[in-house]
Amino acid sequence: MFAWVPVNVTEPRVRHQEGLPSDPHRQDLPLAALLVIDEAPDGVFLFRFSQSGEDAGDTWHQSVDDAKHQGMFEYGPLSWRSAPPELQKIPVLVRSLLEKGDKDQQG
Q1: 49 pLDDT more than 70
Q2: What is the C-alpha to C-alpha distance for residues 22 and 31, in angstroms, rounded to an integer?
Q3: What is this structure's pTM?
Q4: Burial class (CB in 10 A: 0-12, 13-18, 19+), 58
Q5: Which residues contact 97 (CB under 8 A, 6 or more apart)?
Q6: Mean pLDDT of the region 26-52
Q7: Mean pLDDT, to the nearest integer, of 30-45?
Q8: Contacts of 3 (CB under 8 A, 6+ apart)
Q9: Which residue has the higher pLDDT, 95 or 73?
Q10: How far is the CA of 80 from the CAs of 25, 33, 52, in angstroms?
Q11: Would 48 disulfide with which of 28, 56, 74, 94, CB 3.0-4.6 Å?
Q12: Do the beta carbons of residue 33 and residue 74 sit within 8 Å?
């Protein structure tokens, strides 16, 4: 499942950073352009990717609904879409979507 971050979101409510909170050298991760929800045996992950496909943060959630709510909290209304079966692996999905430039869902 994926959603494009609306193009008018230039300052999300949450900034994701690399490293632990105690690290004085933490740096902001790039702004997210694409969100991907992945259901795993140990929970649900909300992955964020920049326009160039770089890691832009991730969070763990107990359910898909929780992950969707977190995305909405950070970026506003989102249009979630199912990924085609051939693109179920996250790296393949992200690469395909960013190369294709499928941004018709961005607001």
Answers
A1: yes
A2: 22
A3: 0.85
A4: middle
A5: 2, 34, 87
A6: 93
A7: 94
A8: 34, 35, 71, 78, 79, 80, 81, 105
A9: 73
A10: 34, 13, 20
A11: 56
A12: no
Q: Which residue has the tokens 């193009």?
A: 7
CB-facing half-sphere around the CA of 88: CA atoms within 13 A: 4
Give CA–CA dist 14/2, Å, rounded: 19
Q: How far apart are CA 59 and CA 62, in angstroms?
A: 10
The answer on pLDDT for 106 being more than 50 is: no
Considering the chain, what is the average pLDDT of its residues?
Answer: 88
Domain range list for the chain: 2-6+29-100
Taking the CB of residue 74, how many other CB atoms lie within 10 A of it? 21
User: What is the DSSP secondary-structure string of the chain?
Assistant: -EEEPPTT-SS-S---EES-TT-TT-EEPPPPSEEEEEEETTEEEEEEE-TTS-EEEEEEESSHHHHHHHHHHHHSS---BPPPGGG-SHHHHHHHHHHHT--TT--
